[in-house]
Amino acid sequence: MRKLYFILFFCVAFISVKAQTPLSYYLPQNVSYNAKIPTPQLVLGFNVGDQHVSHDQVVMYMTALDQASDRITLTEYGKTYENRRMLLLTITSPENHKNLEQIRTQHVALSDPSKSANINVDNMPIVVWQGFSVHGNEPSGVNASIAVAYYLAAAEGSEVDEMLKNSVILFDPAINPDGIQRFSTWVNANKSNTLVTDPNSREFAEPWPGSRTNHYWFDLNRDWLPLQHNESKGRLTQFHYWKPNILTDHHEQGTNATFFFQPGVPSRTNPLTPKINQELTAKIGTYHAAELDKIGSLYFTKENYDDFYYGKGSTYPDVNGAVGILFEQASSRGHAQESDNGILRFPFTVKNQVTTAFSTLKAAQGMRVEMLKFQKDFYKGALDIAKTDPIKGYVFGSADNKAVSYHLLDILKRHQIKVYQLAKNSSLSGKNFEQEAAYVVPADQTQYTTIKAIFAKQTKFQDSLFYDISAWTFPLAFNIKYAEVASTAGLIGEEIQTAKFPEGKMMGTASNYAYIFEWTEFYAPKLLNELLKKGLLAKVASKPFTMAIDGKQKTFENGTIMIPAGNQSLNANEVYSLISTAAKTTGITVYPVGTGITEGINLGSSNFRVVAQPKTLMLTGNGVNANDAGESWHLLDQRFDMPPVLVEQTDINRISLEKYNVMIMADGRYLGITASGIEEIKRFVRAGGTLIAMGDANRWVSANGIADIKYKMIKNNDSTAFRNYDTQQEVARAQSIPGAIFNSRVDKTHPIAYGITTAEIPLFREGTGMFEKPKNPFITPVAYTSKPLLAGYISPANEKLLRGSAAVITNGFGRGRVISFSDNPNFRAFWFGTSKLFMNAIFFGQTIGGNGGGEEEVD
Q1: Is there a cis peptide before residue 209, judged by omega within 30 degrees of 0?
Q2: Which pLDDT score is estimated for 465?
Q3: Helix pair 368-388, 448-455: axis angle to 10 deg
Q4: 337 contacts 255 by C-beta, under 8 angstroms
Q5: What pLDDT is recorded for position 729?
Q6: N or C end of the chain: which has fewer CB within 10 A?
Q7: 522/480 Cα distance (integer angstroms)
């Protein structure tokens, strides 16, 4: 330890950073500190708030505290995509550390009614989770974590001793390491010695895509329920390992705001959240108000923000026997910036976060027994409600898409939900479920409320405004066969302990003729791409056929892939080995066949079209919706091992597109593309390329004569109606679509719908840009039904407009195709159902011919 302090002292001796903000500015007064605990300045070389702490500095300081303090145990719970460490500090008294596993075990037992009845909570410690800066460019949180951690490690006296005795604090100092590193680098690099407060300064204008998000440009604060990212999976494991009573989530908002703490807008609380949760939230809020009053900080509550979507850090606890608290601090976005409330200085934003971190701990002490009893009662109450729910469980699973079943099963298990194998083949709600490919989720279990949050479909709401999306029903997002059941009697088989990815297989020995596999499985594109990368010739069936497999007739639908065994770049044994290995890891069943004779099209038919290996480019840069672009990037890179080439839209005029055959334009504005760039894109499509446009990218495509897309317009039928001035924002937002789920009909014979086994498919949309249905009936493979709403909110006027509108349009342009999605098919990485449509556009856009793609250029 002495060696560590000597090294730190030696390093600091040569750092000449002028101290501007003393640590005492943030911390409680009249408190002594243990001199053996290193201060932030000793380790980092600067005081908290003097500059923005980078993630590597957070790790360095938290590691130093862990080494120096017997109050702290540091756990690494994962790595980010950029290989940064994700840390959780367990902070409590030294005495509690000696019995930590016993404390944890007893605490977790509160969530199990079979164990909790006889537990006396009067002397139990409360468990508090404090998380900072899930958004990388909301830096006051992560910088506050440095000061708070120092206090918890070093403060001395009876008050802190009592607090540590009665608390276990789970401390996540930097929720989004990759974004935090990006942002701190930018603002520190653009800081002047004499601070510039002009909002026009480069310091406050970080480049696209910004630092709010993680590596793939995802908002991690929307991933607590879907669990699609490393950061979220690791964090949720720790959450359920302890099951905290209070979780705080430190954010930032606009520069001209003040400070927000929950509760949010009462009418926008999710009905699954018990009323007492909001009462406790409001009671905790009185502690925040008292401490902010002391330092003269302005604040507000019960406005703007809500507790509806359970995928956020501040709402997920609400369905897990805890209270989630959102903090929103006005952001300086740098070191100091002019605002409506005067110059907003970074140290002040940090101070507010520190203050409410401490007020949370005070509330936890004052409400300790109350919060522990609430947790105990929550889970018992959940079982009581489950007994009165007419839905007693859910059955899901499809034999022809086991990978998607696996992904849903994996999510459920991570949420501590009990899932069972279906006990027998069953027909439920008119759907047939096969025993080995289907699962049962009984409602009667302690995670009942989380189960409802995942499976429920809500279409009626007290309020028409939402801070986030209004629907996220998982089986609809996955487009997976499922049924609500009124009884699970006779359905429950063996409990599933761990989700296991399905293993694919070759159904026979090597063939001298051909190999075929169906396109229904989610990872079929990955298998096909692996084969194309190795130079194999592959073809896709545009019509169905039937042939004998193991003595039984089997029908293969449109989209079936055929790989000839002969005339390949590899010999027969190499072809067999390659396909067998790739099939096993992708979960695909491959059939070796010895003849081309079939019922329907034969294997040598021209109705088998050659599939080219996708060589994909995606436009990025200012104006592009970074979330939507990142979702496409993540899908292609993480799911299918075929990352797109990311190109700034302003560079499109200086590069040749000849090496690519697919271009992706995510939702956004493309004003950076010059006239020469427009002509280059036209040449690309005209020569046979596939252009995939999503959302508002279609307005650009249409305006530049590359596709013919017309939009529906809502009519203002009450322009003369009297409206109060103070309702204009509510009226405008009520006409938006905050994110809801709608039904659509699918033309399963169209290449865009290959592998879709149902006549209808749920779509997610969150915008009002609705396509008119084209006159050509063959270029709309997906369109909304006459009664489209499945879950979520839409105004009656918008729903009427949406009915029958086109969801996907395929226009021809020269020898190429423009495939237009009215919304984002890859939303938040868990819309596995419509990601299939997107992958079909990439692989099969080139195969669309005749009237199904149009043959004339629109210009």
Answers
A1: yes
A2: 83
A3: 60
A4: yes
A5: 61
A6: N
A7: 11
Which structure tokens are listed for 700?
Answer: 């650009």
> Would you state the pLDDT for residue 716?
60
Contact status, residue 247 vs residue 323, Cβ threshold 8 Å: yes
Q: What is the pLDDT of residue 15?
A: 38
Give the integer Cα–Cα distance in Å for 843 and 829. 19
Q: Report the length, in residues, of the chain.
A: 859
User: Cβ(576)–Cβ(628) under 8 Å?
Assistant: no
Q: Are 284 and 263 in contact (CB under 8 A)?
A: no
3-class secondary structure, 252: strand
At position 651, the amino acid (one-letter code) is D
Q: Name, in order, each residue with C-beta under 8 angstroms of 249's C-beta and a sequence gap of 6 or more.
A: 131, 134, 221, 312, 313, 314, 324, 325, 326, 327
Token pair, residue 602, equals 């034969």
Placement of tokens 């996955």 in the chain: 478
What pLDDT does 103 receive? 98
Cα–Cα distance for residue pair 794/515, rounded to 1 Å: 47
Closest C-alpha to 693, from 657, 658, 669: 669
Listed in sequence order, the residues at least 6 apart from 135 whose beta carbon sits closer than 8 Å to its beta carbon are 176, 179, 211, 212, 213, 219, 220, 221, 251, 252
SS3 state at 66: helix
For 266, 476, 547, 554, the CA distances from 551, given in Å and listed in that order, are 63, 36, 9, 9
Give the span between the Cα atoms of 857 and 851, in whole angstroms.
13
**DSSP-derived secondary structure for 110-175:** TT-HHHHTT---TTPPEEEEEEE-SSTT-THHHHHHHHHHHHHHHEESHHHHHHHHTEEEEEES-S
Would you say 794 and 810 are in contact if contact means Cβ atoms under 8 Å apart? Answer: no
DSSP letters spanning 356-400? HHHHHHHHHHHTHHHHHHHHHHHHHHHHHHHHH-S--EEEE--TT
Identify the H or E element spanning 482: strand 482-485
Structure-token pair, residue 543: 């019509």
Q: Are 72 and 91 in contact (CB under 8 A)?
A: yes
